[in-house]
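Risk register update: the risk of archive-format incompatibility is retired. Evidence:
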Amino acid sequence: MEETRVGKAAEEAAFTIDETGKESGNETGSGTRITVFTGKGGVGKTSAIAAHAVLCARKGEKTILVSADMAHNLGDIFEIRTGGAVVEAQKDLFLLEPDPVKIMQEEFPQVNKAILGMLSGKKTVPEEAGRFMVPGFENLFTLLKIKKLYESGEYRRIFVDCAPSGETLSLLKLPELLSWYIEKFFPVGKLITRVLRPVSGGLFKVQLPDSGSMDEFLRLHGELVELQDLLKDPSITDVRLVALPEKMVVEETKRTYMYLNLYGYHVDRLFINRVLGEQSENAFTRYWREIQQGYMEELERVFWQIPVTKIRWYETEIRGIDSLERLRQDLPPYEELFAPVPATSGENYEPEGEGWRLHLFLPGTADAKVSRYGLDLDVAAGNCLRRIPLPQTLSAMEVREVSRKEDGLEVLFLPKGAETGETEGGGRE
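Archived output:
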């Protein structure tokens, strides 16, 4: 196992500004830590995260490993049957392959009934239809289950084995997206529901949700806000990427790193898996080792602000406790593997003259677009768009300059009519 750390550290923590323009930061809640693993399909995410879980359990930390991929395979790699409930794999190590339908039924039954009622147009929903779920909501209820595990304080470490990177991005941006929609449209929707519900069944043949269901939606919104705070707090949650030294994997990993930073997630380590060693020297392995070396150097240039760990290519598949123990022993020492890494993601504001300058860490982007809509800032990078809610402090200001930097964007907000000069490397969008 080889460890690389290049370049200087970034700022110690991200901060936001409240309505007075003062800095504020997140405080750590419990001692529980959440670590999310993602990467392109087939790069070895599950074996890497399972070895982390084994290592923490060996240190006496009560650890749970949760699958956020609907194609669960934790039971396969540990060679035990899970069955959708928390099971003990070994001392201090537990596995969970959650059933999102069960979570929905137990935690948010009113939301389920309201959705079914609106779709069916009936006041009563058959009991057998209770397992219906709107496509795409599986991810949300899995995340809410992870939140419950964190709040319980039962586990010291929560590891989340995510689906391939594209699906993981959809998963991690879902709380913010749903929360934004609820904040924008819920007040109007609640008024319409109160006015039309008495006549909706007779006139429109549609059963609108009752006050209990609407209150459940409000509770869901509160859960989403708390979930965002939990997942984006670098003192609680880290994201770790797993890659291979191959062209397509390298490109997708770079994009994933940019997108995760766009949405404010703290990426604290990269693993480069299946690195060829020098144990079998021949023309074939020499050729591929040279190719791998070039891609590893490229990844180290992009990920210069975080540690990069190289995992050798084993001669046998990683499956079962014995092989996980072997990988666990090849990981860096515990203290090094979980050493704090300064946060670089998030929206960071600095006062500048009469206004504020927003710094967005977006490594690897050269074509980001910025536009302002009321108290929202749209940032488009690659094929991903994020709508960032702005602090109330900026309500009377406008975007005056957008500067493209090597590692991201800077957006200058000034009061209307204020004078400004040209910013090096950028200009008004």
